[in-house]
Design a protein that fits this description.
about 55 residues, mainly alpha, 1 helix, about 80% helix, TatA/B/E, transport, protein transport
Length: about 55
């Protein structure tokens, strides 16, 4: 996809581990997961508002 190989990916993960430390990584991952869930909820809410519901008369 981005042309990133296995070695480059491992290097990036190692740098992230060094920068954040092993104690902060679970918190960081949890925060990213919560962000993704809130984003999905928000996008679903936008989709619900855009689709008109048929009115019974």
């Amino acid at each position: 996809m981005f042309g990133i190989g296995t070695q480059e990916l491992l290097l990036v993960l190692l740098i992230v581990l060094v920068l954040f430390g092993s104690t902060k990584l679970p918190q960081l991952a949890r925060g990213i997961g919560q962000f993704i869930n809130e984003l999905r909820k928000g996008l679903k809410g936008i989709d619900d508002k855009e689709t008109p519901k048929s009115d019974k008369q």
